[in-house]
Structures are given as C-alpha cells and as structure tokens.
Amino acid sequence: MSRPSSPRRAGRHAREGAPAGFLSEGVAAGRSAARKVKRRAAQDPRRAMVSLGVCLTVGLGGGMAATMSTEPDASAAVVAGVVEDNLGAEAAAAVRNVYEAARSGERTSPPPSTTPPGAAAEAGAASGTGAGVGTAADELLEPPTSDLPEPLAAAPDGEPAPEKSLPPSPSPSPSASSAPTPEPGSGLVGTKIAVEEKLSGELVVASGSRPAPAEGKVWRVQIAVEKGLPVDPEVFAESVLATLNDPRGWNAADGSTFAWTDSDRYDARVVLASPGTTDRLCLPLDTIGELSCGIEETAVLNFKRWATGSQAWENTGRYRQYLVNHEVGHVIGYRHDLCTGEGEHATVMVQQTTTTSGCIPEPWPVPDAPVPAAE
C-alpha cells in the first residue's frame, strides 16, 4: 500500500546539496509513474506490480541519471525518499543498501596524502574522524597484536640496515664431564686434598668383579672406601688390583693371585679409611692416627698416608704400592722383617712408613721378577 507523497521529505533531500533542477525532474517523473500504477492496481494486481516496477525504474533511473554524475550522495537520498513515500520504509532501505554496495565497489584506494601533519589533524577533528573518534571501521582495520619481533627500522640511504640483537643464549647447565677426574693410580679427586681426622665410618664397597689373572692360590678381595673421602672407589680398586697382581707381586713370591669381588663372600678385604676410623678398625693394634695395619682378613690403609705419602719415600706412587703389598702381606700370613744393613734393599715386609732404618725402600715382594714390556 502506497503512502501520500511528502513535499517536506523532498525539501529535506533538496537541502542536502542536490541542484533543484535535476532533483525536480527525477521527483516529477517518479511521482507521475506512481499515480499511473495506483490507478491500474485495482484492475489487475499482478499487472499493477509489473507496471509499478517498470515505471519506477524509468522514473527513478531518469532522476538518478540526471543527478548521479554531479551529486551522487544527494541523488541516492532523493531516490530513497521517493521510494519510501510510495513503497514503504523496507523498499527505501533496499535502495540505500544497493547504492552503498555499488558505491563501495567503485571506490579505489586514495593516493598518498600530501597534506601537512598539522592540517591533517585539524581536518580530521573538524570532520569527526581525527584522533579520539572511534568507528567500527577503525576497529575492524586495526592490525591484530602479534608476539613476533618488531621489524627492523629502515636505515638511511647508503648505510646498512641495523642488525637486531638476539637475546643471549642460556648458559649451558653443568654436566658430568665438568666434574674433577680421579687421579689414576690413587683414585684421589681434586687438587687440594683435605685430610679429615674422623668421618662416619660408613664404608662404600667398590662395584666390580674380575677373575684372578694367574694360576695359584686365589684370594677373593673386596675393596671399600670410607664415605666422605675424596676418592673414587672404583679407581682406587683398580689401583689396588694392579699392584696385587703385578708380576713383581705376591704371585711371584708364593703363587698368590687376587680376584676382585663386590660381594660379602671374600677372603680378604682392603679398606681405605680416615685416621680415626683406621684406629678403630685396627684395634687392638695402636695405629696412633698415623699408621696402617693388616689384621685378620682386613688390610686397613690410613687415608692420611695414602694422600700425603711418607718422608722416607721420594716417590708417593711407589709408597702406595708398598702400603698395599705390606698390609695385604699381613692378611695372607706374613710378619714383619728387619732391615739387614745400611744401604741394603729392604724387603716389602720391613716397616717403611716412618723410617727404613737405613735400608733402600722397596715396594715389591720380588723386585727382580721380569716385567713384560709395555705394548
């Protein structure tokens, strides 16, 4: 159902900037076509609808063609007003939507602005699009935030672009390879060895097993280190077994050969202990915190002697070999010998820690036994 035309609407659209001559031509054509359609509507509704569409197309098209080239926004407003007067608000809204779609599709990106920054800011404030005025389009076109690094700033002409510094790499965590390496032949760990007079007395058995390397009387030997000593138990065990099974050792003297075991089923035991624990393990012998002992099935080596050696020996490594062979010699049945004279070679069972009584120090039971050449 059509609505009576409104001169006030036409006047409002005319005031928005369209030339009066062009607007009046389009409005007159549209209204004339609308009157003809209303007279025919009573005779044939379907024919009336077709006729109405043709008339509106001709009349409104003429008005839009007359004004679109000069004032497109004003022309669209006039056409929408006429359609609303005759066909209702929904039809007018459809016309506005079509116009806006066509208008947005014909637009292209504007050329770069040459307006000075100050003038642009004033113009934006006057039109309501400057800073402080938000629109839906502004929100849609706002670039999303990103965790990516910011692009490098452009360098002046002729200069290389600045390099963006990378964050420092994390320091590598300490690994097992950075731990001190035990000294071969002793198992001592670290460069400055502190001798604690007394520790807990808890013993750590060196893990490992190995058969005896030669024929003869087999002694199964367990090797242990007191907990808290700066000594690697397994390296210490290797040095003990290397000394006991040396060709100049007890096998050359009486056929004894030594197997390594970490079980409690052993024939002999070698323990490296602090001075205080050595004194306790050697009772009833008195080792006075300085000496070692061989008692029953256990050879107790005083850590103070193992770490610092003896003033009677120029070579600490050779003194350690003596200490092992001498104390294990007691375990397998040998007693002390005496020095036979000034300048003579001592036997391995001569006490040689505090003094050699004028004898030449000797670490081996059979020092003259042949030793295979090193490969």
How does this structure look, described?
- There is one protein chain.
- With 375 residues, the protein is α/β, with parallel strands linked by helices.
- The protein starts with 6 loop residues before the first helix and ends in a 44-residue tail after the last helix.
- The chain has two domains: 7-101, no CATH class; 189-375, Collagenase (Catalytic Domain).
- Strand 5 and strand 6 (298-302) form a beta hairpin.
- It has twelve helices and six strands.
- Helices cover 41% and strands 9% of the residues.
- It is rod-shaped and about 145 Å long.
- Strands 1, 2, 3, 4, 5 and 6 form a six-stranded mixed sheet that branches.
- Residues 200-357 form the DUF3152 domain.
- This is DUF3152 domain-containing protein.
